[in-house]
From TrEMBL:
Name of the protein in its database record: Coproporphyrin III ferrochelatase
GO BP field: heme biosynthetic process
Binding of Fe-coproporphyrin III, residues: S59, Y128
UniProt-annotated binding residues for Fe(2+): H191, E286
PANTHER family assigned: FERROCHELATASE (PTHR11108), FERROCHELATASE, MITOCHONDRIAL (PTHR11108:SF1)
Keywords: Cytoplasm, Heme biosynthesis, Iron, Lyase, Metal-binding, Porphyrin biosynthesis
Protein's organism: Streptomyces termitum
Length: 375
């Protein structure tokens, strides 16, 4: 971890997340917010609405972000880091614009931003930068000062993100019956995205089949599989698969789907599997429904023993990693060369998204990158 302790020039940290409904009446307006202009088929929306109604219309994501805020504040206080932490969302209250307005009224002018998405992609990176640009434009239109916002680098390979997941895999393996444990496959999962979005994810130099999105996930999967082998002495076969596909059927998205992969494993005689949701930061609806409900039911039907390993959520090691990322970036902004923690083969990700990184289908202003219209 970085030995820097000075948060200057930052005067606040903003946790920027997706948002989710907090009751049955919120579900439809939430889905309208998420899908505005994104061409999701109506049938898919009805189906996803049902996932939320199955859980009383409440997404777990807001509670998980509140827990992460508590963990961050506790970690900062224990480390003597006096940096206030705020929270704003893309799709539900507290909305990003409202939070940024409050921050500006509190006098915050130089803000570090942590998104609850660890990897490069349009949905996980540039779209949040577009949300920041929209919010800054709204403040400007209200005659308020426009703060500077810096998005912290992708943390997919930070030890504070990877190591708790490795521990989770070991715990899930230990829960499997001894007779099937050593032969268990590791099924790393992440959100499927359109092939076209994957191929153009990350800096232009990383574009190509699967882009930075697939490469980053493969690097994390390999890192965890290697660490598990080191701990257990067993070489568990592994594969990166996808879940939560939503677009029109004729548009290609990343495959295979996790449920199809479980069926293939069964057919090939695999004795058991651990599903490892490396693409997600907490146990939100994609994890609770798509893995714990749907894929787990599929595995039961196949008579394939499965476990689902933990996401980092509010793990204190993740909170400490966020502190490390803030202090690292603060040092870099002050012109020094900080130590940058990263596991795996890819090295630490860039601070500033370059021009052409994770392009949108229709170009829109995006803050906190080399092509930002703001300082
Ligand atoms: C890469 C990625 C992440 C991971 C990175 C990150 O975390 O940001 C993520 C996270 C999440 N996605 C979420 C929910 C939804 N995503 C949808 C739709 C889509 N996601 C996409 C991608 C991603 N999504 C894409 C390419 C679409 C198609 C529409 C479009 O091109 O924009 C839809 C519409 C219905 C549907 O089609 O499923 C919903 C309801 C929630 C909240 C869960 C909760 O409430 O607990 C979370 C954390
Ligand atoms: Fe999504």
């Amino acid at each position: 971890m970085s030995d820097q302790h000075d948060p200057a020039p930052y005067d606040a940290l903003l946790l920027l997340s997706f948002g989710g409904p907090e009751g049955p009446d919120d579900v439809v307006p939430f889905l309208e917010n998420v899908t505005r202009g994104r061409g999701i088929p109506r049938e898919r929306l009805k189906e996803v609405g049902q996932h939320y109604f199955l859980f009383g219309g409440v997404s777990p994501i807001n509670g998980q972000n509140r827990a992460l805020l508590d963990a961050l504040r506790a970690d900062f206080a224990a480390a003597g880091l006096a940096l206030p932490v705020y929270w704003g969302n893309r799709n539900w209250a507290p909305y990003l614009t409202d939070t940024l307005r409050e921050m500006v009224r509190d006098g915050r002018r130089r803000i570090a931003v942590l998104t609850t998405s660890a990897y490069a992609s349009y949905s996980g990176c540039r779209q949040y930068r577009e949300n920041l640009a929209d919010a800054l434009a709204a403040l400007e239109a209200e005659g308020l000062p426009v703060p500077r916002v810096d998005k912290l680098r992708h943390y997919f390979n930070h030890p504070g993100f990877v190591e708790p997941m490795t521990e989770g895999v070991l715990a899930s393996l230990a829960e499997l019956d001894e007779s099937v444990r050593t032969g268990a496959h590791l099924v790393f999962t992440t959100h499927s995205i359109p092939d076209s979005a994957a191929d153009t994810s990350g800096p232009v130099a990383d574009h190509g089949p699967g882009g930075a999105y697939v490469r980053q996930h493969l690097d994390v999967a390999r890192t965890i599989a290697d660490a598990v082998r080191e701990k257990t002495g067993t070489d568990h076969p592994w594969k990166l698969v996808y879940q939560s596909r939503s677009g029109a059927p004729h548009v290609p998205w990343l495959e295979p789907d996790v449920c199809d992969h479980l069926a293939e494993l069964r057919a090939a005689g695999a004795p058991a599997a651990v599903m490892v949701p490396i693409g997600f930061v907490s146990d939100h609806m994609e994890v609770l429904y798509d893995l714990d409900t749907e894929a787990t039911a599929k595995a039961a039907e196949l008579e394939l023993p499965v476990r689902r390993s933990a996401t980092v959520g509010a793990d204190p090691r993740f909170a400490a990693a966020v502190r490390d990322l803030v202090l690292e970036r603060a040092a870099a902004e002050r012109g020094t060369r900080p130590e940058r923690c990263a596991l795996g083969a890819l090295g630490p990700s860039h601070d500033l998204c370059p021009v052409g990184c994770c392009p949108a289908r229709a170009e829109r202003p995006a803050a906190a990158g080399a092509d930002s219209p703001y300082a």
